Amino acid sequence: MIGDIFGHRSFVFANAWRETRTRYAGTAMGAFWHIVQPLFLILLFSVLFTGLFPSRPGSNAALHIMTGMLPWVVFADCLVRCTTSLTDNAHYLRKLPLPETLFVARTAVSAGLMMLLSLALAAMAAVAFGARPNWSWLTVPIAGLLMIGFAFGLGLILAPIHVLLRDTGQAIGVFSQFWMWLTPVVLTPEVMPGALRAAQPWNPAFWFVQAIREPLVSGQAAPIVTWIIMLSLVSATLLLGDRLIRRLRSDIRDLL
Amino acid sequence: MANSHETAIGVAALSKRFRLYRNPIGRIADLIRPRAGRFEEIWSLRDVTFSVRRGECFGIVGQNGSGKSTLLKLVTGTLLPTSGSIQVNGRVLALLELGGGINPELTGRQNVIMSAALLGFPEGYAEAKMSEIEEFAELGEFFDRPMAIYSSGMYVRLAFSIYLFMDPEVFIVDEALSVGDVFFQQKCYEALKKIMKAGTTVLFVSHDTGAIQKLCDRALLLDHGRIEFIGLPDEVVNRYHTKLGRLTQERRERNDNVEPPPPNAMAAGVVEGNLLRQAPFAASDVGLSLLGAQLADSDGHATTVQEVAGTISVRALVEATRDVANPNFSLALFDRFGALVFRTSLARLGAAPPPMTAGQRLLSSFDLTCRLAVGQYTFSIGLGQTGGLSEEDYPHSPMMGPLFVTSDRSTSLFYGQVGLATSIASASPRSGDVP
Questions:
Q1: Per-residue pLDDT tens for B373-395?
Q2: Any chain B CB within 8 A of the CB of A94?
Q3: Per the CB < 8 Å rule, is A253 touching B103?
Q4: Do B82 and B213 lie in a common domain?
Q5: Rounded to whole angstroms, how far apart are CA atoms A131 and A121?
Q6: Is ipTM > 0.85 here?
Q7: Of A23 and B206, which is predicted with more confidence?
Q8: Domain encompassing residue B379
Q9: For a 10 Å CB count at each end of chain B, is N or C smaller?
């Protein structure tokens, strides 16, 4: 798989870049739409928590939600689009003998760009809310890209299943909403029910969300254990997805 | 098989099976724990073996569902074989359906660049070829407009132009080409011949058997996923048409047993094989009504197949719905492109029938010598009156047929659309006599 992607790297990157640029082709505001959603989220939570429901001093709920929501929206979008990437690109796959993984990779790379953009906005918002940048902030984009890597790995597993069973994409869309509330994205671990809070170490998304948020909120980089867990999750899903796509290749092609 | 440098495509014992599941859950269950009986098997290709030499143009002929598309997709690599092997030496480009990977939001020019990236060409390659592509596609100002507003003909022009200039080593051309207009088609054939001369191998799939005969060096006839015949295009095409004719006749005979012809036609004598689907066809302005029509051989038996140069009778049973002073019936024959091949009428042939009274029936028979190119034809009967409308404005029945003109001979009597009545006079003039 690595070889396939590397061999077609110019295709993957050029197309991811082109996809990012042309996703809003035909709209008046064009590429501006990419940042409309994160900007809107920032605005919403700023108004909500400074104007309407001012929170207790020191709790900074707006910052907590922004640093969780901004990456999560990109992650969930990436997961859903990776899952449907093979069927979305069926017109290519029916006609060109390109490796299937390229289309999942292309979606992930394009989501990676979005992740960096969103994290940059989140960092700016954090500064506006009084956070002080330090060296630990440099680990944020790395954690963000690992989170996209995790979505890519899950996408590799889910994409072939989605070809066989088109309900998968729908189910993932619904599940990712649900998953957000199981993960401390909006809620803080403290307000979660005890059982859910205790289960957090078993929630893979928890580690990524923590690794992205902690530097921005408390100026502390994630501990080494978190990085090991994240890397293991990414490699495990990538390996599994790669095996699954290989195994199902013939069936995928027959059904597209 | 020739040595590997000479072989562009080598296909050995290739089979492809599709599994049809009633329910997608069944497919998933089979992957986890296979069990017989969850699916229906369809063998699209069975044990197909052939090889194509470098620079050769190889045609693939077969009816719909014979496995042509599956074979192409296997050669292209977009489908994987169930068993057997395919070896393709060199880059394959396939003009499958309409150009793969075209984004209708982008302009023609942007799509050229996009396609080049998709096909793995280095950056700058498409730009270098751009002026040639632009010139060949002949799209004018449309080249810089979004492809969403292109007609299907323009689409194919661009797709074909892109692929032509991407220097394929194996070029797969299919039905898509027939979408373009005749002039562009001719240009494409010209271009194909040129790249073939330069060593490109062409795999050509088409229903246009004329094009197969003109372009291909060899051809393959597929039938129900198996190779029926491999050989010279003329022979393959002949076998194809013969087979097609036989098949349709069988089908028609089978249908006849199930579906009796309309009773009014039956009563009057056009008994077997009425080809008029919705009888009668009434031309009330003229006062005539076509009850039925039939194709028959010289012995009077209903048939829809005739050999080249054989005689076929087109018989039409017409009833007058009121008194008609000077009735006239015309016959028009059309080729597979819907172009008029031939039209005549009873009056034109000096055989105008006498006046008809209300309720009177008349059975007329046009006996035609099928000096026509092998292929399928349709016909229509026109009803009118001499001295009234001109013949082409007569009310015409719906298209009937098809009539299959076939040939079992390996050498045809003639080439082209029709065999003109020809007599030969040969002499040996001295050089001074030449006009």
A1: 887 788 999 999 988 888 888 99
A2: yes
A3: no
A4: yes
A5: 13
A6: no
A7: B206
A8: 251-406
A9: C
